[in-house]
Design brief:
Oligomer: heterodimer
Shape of chain B: elongated
Number of domains of chain A: 2
Shape of chain A: globular
Number of helices of chain B: 6
Number of domains of chain B: 1
CATH topology of chain B: Porin
Radius of gyration of chain A: 18 Å
Largest sheet of chain A: 5 strands, mixed
Largest sheet of chain B: 16 strands, antiparallel, barrel
Strand order of the largest sheet of chain B: 1-2-3-4-5-6-7-10-11-12-13-14-15-16-17-18
Number of strands of chain B: 18
Number of strands of chain A: 9
Helix content of chain B: 10-25%
Number of helices of chain A: 4
Structural class of chain B: alpha+beta
Helix content of chain A: 25-40%
Structural class of chain A: alpha/beta
Strand content of chain B: 35-45%
């Protein structure tokens, strides 16, 4: 679809174009405009304790989705988040790091506890969350995490979203290609 | 696109200037389909009618906007500067804000289950000095176009379908319903499936399915290929399958038990008898594994498996074999390593006039390393299959061989991978042929 506006366009035409563009953006589900308080709030962390995203408002939240049995994309994404943590440490800044499991059956608190221990991710500002499958799907949809399951495999991309201290989505990046240091 | 839109200049040509744009939108929204001339006329008339309506609406709206703009200009000029909104206005604004927030929340919480079933799958193409399945052919190859459907039907009901369009080793295009299974999940520890599923033996047959993209190596070991590609094990079973796992501390016990139609050998390939068997024979088996999830052994899974079935063939004279296969597998799957090995021992009994029991074995070991730039792998595979065993004699892929392969997988992006493999294969009984291969595969997921 060619969205170039011809020179005869009127103000109304611009409005129509903007509406079309807005519709396209909505369809892309890039998580634009998301707020922490509008996301599903019923989660359990790796200790089995209830945690709501609203509990984290007040400091920056860096969030991604992963699954414990992923040995390719998720470790790379996690590596990028660790580098983000190091950068923030160097700056003396605080943030919460949140990983939400794609699979409610497999990524339960016990699995995440083991995952943390195996990878020595012991800092208290890191949260590995488990939710119901409807909540996971809703969160993924709202934040633009596209995934589907192929038997025990989960087909997904690499994505990290960053929320401001007010709980507003401030950036959504693909760690492999983006210069994420600029958005921190 | 956004930048382009910002350069649009409003003109004062009026509503008629919208005509081409509105027409373009209407045309874009119209379904594309062949139609007779009469239909086209009717459609054009209908479009003209809608266009007239749209133009009238736009003209009315334009007039209203001008009217409001004029009114606003007058009131701004005439009224004294407002110091604040009145109480009723404030209440109305707050109510509107609340309403807007409710709409936003409702929109955010909208469930997408009613948006239909998304279609996903895999595809691959390749080129090589030999066809990866049939060494008598060479050149470019079309691999699989694999569609995967797993509709969500409820908390406990499961469904899984895999429709694969594949090019056979002879070049014919076949469409197979590779998997069609419905299941009920009793708990996290037990799911019962019925239908056509991948027979749970070893590791590879239920971990790496038809989509080439998920497999780091370019192809399966020769003896573990799917039935129509020369595999010697029944990769599919039509029947019942109970599967699950149970936590033991941090570790896990995995189990599978299954029973199904006994396969038959037809034209040199195993047929899983989708519609049932004429003799009512059943095949069955099981698998049990132990998965280490903590400590030094994290990522290691060890298991055993067994299969038995009375498998009829179409050799002359027709006969059958009681196939008994048992073996073991080991997997070491971590962020760095993807290593696995499987062994199969056969103790097959000829149920025909020849009688006797024949012993054979097959196995492979593959080592892969997940580096930041790709996954290099090496595989050794070997099958020593008795040619006195009518089961192997009846199978096209029932000859003995050994193969060593070295390969490399590059992920071009998160959805496509380029795989390279060089291999040397020695056929050790039906012929004493030996051939080398250089293969390239381009695999995607969608």
């Amino acid at each position: 679809m060619n969205l170039h506006c011809p020179p005869w366009a009127t103000r109304q035409a611009t409005l129509v174009c903007v509406l079309l563009l807005a519709a396209g953006s909505a369809a892309a589900a890039d998580g634009g405009g998301a707020r922490l308080d509008q996301l599903p709030q019923q989660w359990r962390d790796e200790q089995g304790q209830a945690l709501a995203f609203t509990d984290l408002i007040g400091q920056r939240v860096i969030l991604s989705m992963a699954y414990t049995r992923c040995h390719s994309i998720c470790p790379a994404t996690l590596g990028q988040m660790l580098r983000m943590q190091a950068l923030l440490d160097a700056r003396g800044e605080q943030a919460s790091f949140v990983i939400v499991g794609y699979d409610s059956d497999i990524d339960n608190p016990a699995s995440w506890r083991q995952y943390r221990a195996n990878r020595r991710l012991e800092r208290s500002n890191w949260h590995f969350l488990t939710g119901t499958q409807p909540a996971i799907r809703q969160l993924a949809r709202q934040l633009g995490f596209d995934f589907w399951t192929y038997d025990t495999h989960i087909m997904h991309d690499s994505r990290i979203v960053i929320f401001s201290t007010q709980g507003l989505l401030s950036a959504a990046i693909s760690p492999a290609s983006a210069d994420w240091s600029a958005v921190l | 696109m956004r930048a382009t839109l910002m350069t649009c200049r409003p003109s004062r040509l009026g509503a008629m200037a919208l005509l081409p744009l509105v027409m373009a939108i209407l045309v874009a929204l119209l379904p594309v389909r062949p139609a007779a001339a009469a239909d086209e006329s009717a459609a054009l008339a209908e479009m003209q009618r809608k266009l007239d309506q749209s133009l009238k609406a736009i003209a009315a709206l334009t007039e209203r906007v001008h009217e409001l703009e004029a009114k606003q200009a007058t009131s701004v000029a005439a009224a004294p500067a407002a110091t604040g909104t009145s109480a009723p206005d404030t209440a109305r604004l707050e109510a509107a804000e609340q309403k807007l927030e409710q709409i936003e929340k409702a929109n955010a919480n909208r469930n997408t289950d009613d948006t239909g079933l998304p279609l996903h799958g895999f595809a691959d193409v390749g080129v090589g000095t030999h066809n990866p399945i049939n060494p008598d052919l060479k050149g470019f190859t079309v691999g699989n176009l694999d569609f995967y459907l797993a509709p969500r039907l409820g908390d406990r009901t499961r469904a899984l379908f895999e429709l694969n369009t594949e090019v056979s080793s002879e070049g014919a295009v076949d469409v197979d319903l590779e998997r069609a299974q419905l299941g009920y999940q009793f708990s996290d520890e037990a799911t019962l499936w019925m239908g056509r599923f991948h027979t749970p033996y070893g590791y590879l047959n239920t971990a790496l399915h038809h989509g080439s993209w998920i497999n780091n190596s370019l192809r399966r070991p020769k003896f573990l290929q799917f039935e129509d590609n020369g595999g010697i094990m029944p990769a599919h079973t039509v029947g019942l399958w109970l599967t699950g796992s149970r936590h033991l501390g941090g570790d896990k016990i995995l189990y599978d038990v299954y029973v199904g139609n006994s396969q038959e050998i037809v034209d040199g390939a195993l047929d899983m008898r989708n519609a049932g068997t004429s003799n009512g024979d059943l095949s069955g088996g099981g698998r049990m594994g132990y998965q280490f999830n903590a400590g030094a052994a994290e990522g290691l899974t060890l298991g055993v498996h067994a299969f038995t079935g009375r498998i009829a063939d179409d050799l002359a004279p027709a006969g059958a074999t009681r196939v008994r296969s048992y073996g073991a597998y080991a997997v070491y799957d971590t962020d760095q390593w993807e290593n696995f090995a499987e062994i199969y021992l056969f103790d097959n009994q000829d149920l025909g006039a020849g009688g006797g029991t024949h012993h054979s074995n097959a196995g492979f070991a593959q080592f892969g390393y997940r580096s930041s730039w790709g996954v290099p792998y090496a595989r050794y595979e070997r099958a020593a299959l008795s040619q006195y065993d009518r089961y192997f004699l009846a199978l096209h892929g029932g000859g003995s061989y050994d193969r060593i392969a070295l390969g490399l997988r590059f992920d071009l992006d998160l959805k496509s991978a380029l795989k390279l493999e060089i291999a040397n294969t020695r056929l050790t009984d039906r012929s004493s042929d030996e051939y080398g291969e250089g293969l390239v595969q381009y695999a995607i997921r969608f």
